[in-house]
Design a protein that fits this description.
Blueprint (H helix, E strand, L loop, with lengths): L5 E7 L1 H13 L5 E5 L13 H11 L15 H6 L4 E7 L4 H14 L5 E4 L22 H6 L7 E2 L2 H17 L3 E5 L2 E5 L5 H7 L5 E2 H14 L10 H13 L4 E4 L7 E4 L1 H10 L1
Parallel strand pairs: 1-2, 1-3, 3-4
Antiparallel strand pairs: 4-5, 6-7, 8-10, 9-10
Length: 277
C-alpha cells in the first residue's frame, strides 16, 4: 500500500510565503505554505537562542518604526516545515542574503533527508522598473510567480548539494560573525563595520536628512550591479551611521528617534567648516 506524504512549501518571511501561497492557489494548489522565521544574515547563529539574538538586535540595530515581533514560538514554523512526516519544498532566491541564510539553516536541519527546491536565483522576470534578473523572491507578486512558471522549476535537492550546503553553514555557524553577506554567490562572514566605508564614502558634503544617506546606500547594496553586500537592512545602516557619528567619522545632529529626525554630513563638510574658521 502506498503511503501518501503531505507536501509542505516553505519560504523565508511572511510576505514571501504569502506570495508563494497565493501563487499556488492561483494554480489550484492547496498545499500548506510555511513562513520561516529568523533573519540569519545578521546576528549570532551558533545557537539560535531567541534571548541572545534579541539582545544583539537591540544593541546593534536601530529601527525607524515599531520593531517586528517574531511569533511567540519562533521555532514552530521550522518544526512544521522539517517534520519527518512531510515532504518539504523550499522556495528561495540565493542572491538575497536573508533567503540564502534561511535556506542553509533549512538544509542543515533536514540532516540529509530528501526535499525539493524551487530556486529563483537569476530568474529573468520582465516588469516595469524591475531589476532583472531578480535578486529576491520578495520582488515577485503572485501573478508574476505564476507567469514565470516558477512552480515548474521544482526539483529534488541532491545529496551532494545538501552536503555542500551543510558544510557551508557549519563553517558560518562556527565563525558566528555579526553579518553574513554575498560574495560571488556564496554567503560569507563579515564584521559589523562591513558597510562603514560605503556609508562614509556616500555621505554628502552638505548636511542632509539621515534617511537620504540610508536610501542612497541601500539601492546599490541591494540592487546595484556590483552587489557589494546584498541583503543589508536599513536598521543596520541607521545604527552604523549613528555609531560613525559618535566616532567622529560622520557629523550627525538631531535628537531622534527616527531617521528623519537626524541630519548627517560627511568628512568633506567638516573640512570645509574647519577651513572657514
Amino acid at each position: 500500500m502506498t503511503v501518501s506524504v503531505e507536501v509542505v512549501h516553505a519560504a523565508w518571511g511572511v510576505s514571501r510565503a504569502e506570495s508563494v501561497r497565493d501563487a499556488l492557489r492561483l494554480q489550484g494548489c492547496t498545499d500548506r505554505v510555511v513562513a520561516l522565521t529568523h533573519d540569519l544574515s545578521v546576528g549570532p547563529i551558533d545557537a539560535l537562542d531567541p534571548a541572545v539574538r534579541r539582545a544583539w538586535f537591540a544593541a546593534n540595530l536601530r529601527s525607524d518604526e515599531e520593531p517586528c515581533v517574531e511569533p511567540a514560538d519562533s521555532e514552530a514554523p521550522w518544526v512544521e516545515a522539517t517534520a519527518v512526516g512531510v515532504h518539504p519544498v523550499h522556495w528561495v532566491c540565493l542572491s538575497d542574503a536573508a533567503e540564502h541564510a534561511c535556506f542553509l539553516e533549512f538544509v542543515f536541519r533536514m540532516a540529509g533527508r530528501p526535499f525539493d527546491v524551487v530556486d529563483a536565483t537569476g530568474l529573468d522576470v520582465p516588469g516595469a522598473g524591475r531589476v532583472s534578473p531578480i535578486r529576491s523572491l520578495g520582488q515577485l507578486r503572485p501573478a508574476e510567480i505564476v507567469a514565470a512558471g516558477l512552480a515548474e522549476k521544482r526539483r529534488p535537492y541532491s545529496r551532494a548539494e545538501s552536503d555542500a550546503a551543510v558544510a557551508a553553514w557549519t563553517r558560518l555557524r562556527r565563525e558566528n560573525a555579526p553579518l553574513r553577506v554575498l560574495r560571488d554567490g556564496r554567503l560569507v562572514s563579515a564584521p559589523l563595520t562591513h558597510f562603514d566605508a560605503l556609508l562614509a564614502g556616500q555621505a554628502s558634503g552638505e548636511r542632509e536628512p539621515l534617511v537620504k544617506l540610508v536610501a542612497r546606500v541601500l539601492h546599490p547594496v541591494n540592487a546595484g550591479p556590483e552587489q557589494p553586500g546584498q541583503g543589508c537592512r536599513y536598521e543596520l545602516l541607521f545604527a552604523r551611521i549613528l555609531a560613525l557619528g559618535e566616532a567622529g567619522v560622520l557629523e550627525v545632529t538631531g535628537l531622534g528617534p527616527g531617521m528623519r529626525d537626524y541630519e548627517v554630513c560627511g568628512p568633506a563638510a567638516r573640512r570645509s567648516a574647519r577651513c572657514a574658521n
